[in-house]
Structures are given as structure tokens and as C-alpha cells.
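Dear support,

I submitted the protein below through the web form. The confirmation email said the job was done, but the results page showed an empty box. After a refresh the structure appeared. I'm attaching both so you can tell me whether what I see now is the final result or a partial one.
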Amino acid sequence: MAHLKKNTRGAVPGLAVHFERKTDHHTNKEIDVSKSYLNQDLMADGSDMLSRFNERLNDVYCMKRDDVKALATWIVTLPEELTEAPYEQQRAFFEATTNFLNDRYSQENAVAAVVHYDETTPHLHYAFVPVVFDVKKSRYKVSAKEVLTRHDLQTFHEDLDQNLKKVLPFYEQGILNNKTLPFENVAEIKKYNDQFNALKTELADIEDNIRAKQAVLKITDQALTEVDLAEKQIDAFKQDLSKNLFGKTVLKPDDLNRFKSVLATMKKATLQSQHETEELKQTLGQVKAQLADIQADYQNLKETHQSLQKRQREQQQLDYAMRDMLKNDYGVDKIAHTDAEARYVLYKLDHEELTQNKKVAQTWLKTLTTARANPDTKIAPTRLDRGIEQVKALINRIIKLTYDLFKGPSL
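What the results page shows now:
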């Protein structure tokens, strides 16, 4: 639904070109220039994004480092429920979203609010300079870290959703639909997905190392063969020297021994390389086994997530059906909060889902009596009276059971 990005000062000119469509030669192949006339600039004040950005930076303190995130951009996509809505409703959605962003990050920090209709899905590009007040130095400064905190990002979608529901009467389903609801299993999937990717990276590194070791091993195996051959040749050469008719040796025995020592060292290094390769193979096997476990857990969580999505969609469809039935068949546009709570209690009583907690039972009694006293209640008085008597009887049973429990067996 919404995506945030932090940008350096050097990225702003390029973003301005894209946001304000200052060129017809786009690298994004999804842009249909024949529809660009439909785009909206919600900050049409005779200026442009780059000018507003530079003007705002002149008013506040900003470090001169190239890596400072001096601009933040939100991309807010039109919800699916409004893709077929009239243009006026879509425009109202983006204007309300812009007002929400102006209130959240201060309108004086905004430098762009552009709606693109010339791509696959209509969306809003909102850009602002993240500014906070520096109490120690008594001045305003640019600080994306202090503006876009973890709390701000965690509450953003929920806050935007609630705000839009208040100001837009046609906005019912909301951005927190079955695609964005924060199920716990989604977090679990992300956790396992992160582990899965980390292990894949580790596995790739180990496989690269294995391949490198195998290449070395191939070379050292060849060298080992050559060493063995050289040793045999040297032994044969020594024997030939000892049989020299003139009794002279061209190569001293000490030199031969030193040469053999060097060859032995080479052979030892080769064997060590073979040993390391075997160890790496074992490690690779262990990582592969771990990866298989993570893949299995990931698949299970993914299936659970899909099941929850399906259940949520079915529940949502049922909710819409109930709302439609109440509105069109019974003329009920809304249900009072007291009636909703009372109907919940009556449902529990009708299906014998009784509590054993006295405080809960007393809360039920208060809920039913409050609804009974409401002259605008839609629940039949006789049904409420019957429910009140049932709860009173339930409370009496709980009191008696507690009394008998503490009284204990008679002597």
C-alpha cells in the first residue's frame, strides 16, 4: 500500500524529473506518456520540487556530507477497492492522504505531492524534508533518523487507515485488507525467510570455497604424483651414481636429502589440503541439512499464512453479506455499541457458552440491563428480560459453587 524511501541530496534532481515528468524519454517502460496529462500536482503553487527542496534546506541546518538522507519519499498506491471508483473518489483519496502526510510531517517540509495516472496503478509520490527541532542548539535540523523512527513506521499504515475512514465516507474496506493485515505468522515467515536467505548465502560461499579447494586438490594430486615419480627417479639416480666407474659424484648426498625434504614438505601440504577439503565437505553437508529444515519450516509457515488469508477473506465476505442483509432487508444502517455487546452476551447464553467467572458474569448483567434501559434498542425487550434472568441465575450458581468450595466437606 505505502512504501518509504530515504534519499540523499544528490538523488533529488533525478527524483524531480521522474515525479514531475520533465522528460518524455523514460527508462520505466510502464509509463504511458499519452496518459500523462491525467497526472495531478497537488502542490501547484507555481514552483517546482527542486526549488522547494533547496528553499527548505536554506531555512534549516543540514550536514554537508554526501550520505545525509535529506529527502524522504512515500509512495502510496490506490487501494484495489477504489480501482474502479469514479475519478472524483480517487482524487479525494489522494488529497486526503496528502493532508494526512502534511499533518504528520508538517506541511512546510513538503516539497512534492504528485499523483501518477500514467502507470499501471495510480499512486501518489509524496516527498518531504525530514526536519526536527534541535533543543540543544535551538534550531531546526534535517534528521531522517529522528523523524522516521521505528514507532512512526510501525504505526503509519494503521494511522493512515483510521484517518481515511474518518474523512472519506466511501472508504470502507481500508488499506489493512487481507494483503496487509499484520498476522503474527507473517513475522514468523519473514524471520524464517531471513534465515533461509542467510543460509543460502552461507551455502553459496562454502560451495565456492569447496570448488576452490577442489581445484587446488586437483593440482596438488597431480603434484603428489609428480613428487612420487621424482622420488623414484632420485633413488634410481643415487644408485646410478654409486655405480659410477670413476667414483665421482656430480650431486652430493646432502643435496639429495635436502631436495627429498622439500618434496616431503610438499607432500605434507598436499595431504593437509586434502584434509581441509574433507572438513569443508562435512560442513557443507551440515549446512545443507539446516537449509532443508529451514525450507520445511518456511513452507509450513507459508501454507499457514495462506490458510489464514483464505479464512480472513471468507470472514470478510460474510461480514459484507451481513451488512448488506441488515441494510437492504431490515433497514438497519448501523448497530449501537450497547446492542452489539448485548447481542454477544445473548449469543453466549443461547449456545450455553457460560462463564465460570463471577466478574465476567456481572459484566454480562450490566451489559444486558444497559441495553434494556436504552429506548432505542433494536433487541426485543422480552429477549433481554429472559437473558437478564439467565445471568442472575448464573451468578447465583457461581456464588453457591464458590461457597461450597470454601466451606469444604462436613465433618
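Response: this is the final, complete result; the empty box was a page-load delay. The mean pLDDT is 81.
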